[in-house]
Amino acid sequence: MELVKKSFAEVVGTALLVVFGCGVAIVCGADSVAVSLAFGLTIIAMAYSIGNVSGCHVNPAVSLAMLIKKKITFKEFCVYVVSQLVGAAVGCLVLMMIFGKDCGFGANLIQGGIVSQYSNSKTMQYLVALVGEIVLTFTFVLVILGVTSKEKYSTISGVVIGLTLTLVHLLGLFITGTSVNPARSLLPAIFYLFTGKAAITQVWVFIVGPLVGAALAALFQYALECKCEKKLVAAKVEAEPEVKSEAKEVSVASVKEAEKAPARPTTKKASTTTKKTATTKTTKTTNAKAK
User: Fold this and answer.
1) Angle at 133 between CA 195 and CA 63, to 5 degrees
2) Domains and CATH numbers, the chain
């Protein structure tokens, strides 16, 4: 039942991300600030609404990173990814109802600047787009893993993640239109078939790039945590001799005090014995005289 709730939360979260993010992209077109804010603000809203249920992944790349970090099981990963794809499909259906089947659905495409710069090489166009998606997703997922790793960041994690998504969009919109989310790219590319085939032929870039970037971010975060753990262990090892030395000093001091402590009763006992001896002698002397 718990997994069903998480699944439903991911469907709703991903659907709303597509509706508002891609919807603003349809309406505002080239207004990069508006589109960036739309995606970022939607993530902030979802983080504080469904985050306590499913973690608000709404992105197969994020779910992959969580799987690598062993935050979720493989079964949960599969359920999350299916839910996200279903959510993206629902979002596209809503967009089609609002804007019609020729709206473009905010599908990702390699942008004109990259195409014109490498007009003589399709391979370079795809390579630049792929590297761009890897870098953008690496940045986004790394921030997610970092800000969700400690409980003390929980109150601000949603804002930080949303602003980071806004940041990567501000650059990525001029490279690929910014995916960093295979679900957000795959379903709009499928619905884009109503308009043309360009998006579906390029969609592999927006699936492979984000997944590779997310995996690299998870591995990098894992390496950082291992180094931190090694430093903590080294610090403990260095601290142990000092603790032992202090304990030894305390032990020696205790022994010395213990050695000194019995001296007083012994003196008293000796004094008492002396007094008894003197009394005995006096008694003997008195008895002798009496005789």
Assistant:
1) 95
2) 2-231 (1.20.1080.10)
Report how far residue 125's alpha carbon sits from residue 132's, in angstroms, rounded to the nearest whole number.
11
d(CA 291, CA 282): 14
**Alpha carbon distance 272, 279 (integer Å):** 10
CA distance 139 to 249: 52
If one counts every other C-beta atom within 10 angstroms of the C-beta of residue 60, the result is 26
Give helix then strand counts, H and E, for the chain: 13, 0
User: 172 near 128, Cβ under 8 Å?
Assistant: no
Tokens representing residue 24 in the block: 């603003």
Report H helices in 30-73. 32-47, 51-54, 60-68
Q: What mean pLDDT is reported for the chain? A: 86
Q: Going along 111-178, which residue ranges are E strands?
A: none
Instruction: Tell which residue, 143, 134, 145, has the closest CA to residue 167.
Output: 143
What pLDDT, in 10s, does the model give residues 76-85? 999 999 999 9
Picking from 286, 110, 105, 138, the residue whose alpha carbon sits closest to that of residue 214 is 138
Binned at pLDDT 50, 70 and 90, residue 234 comes out as low
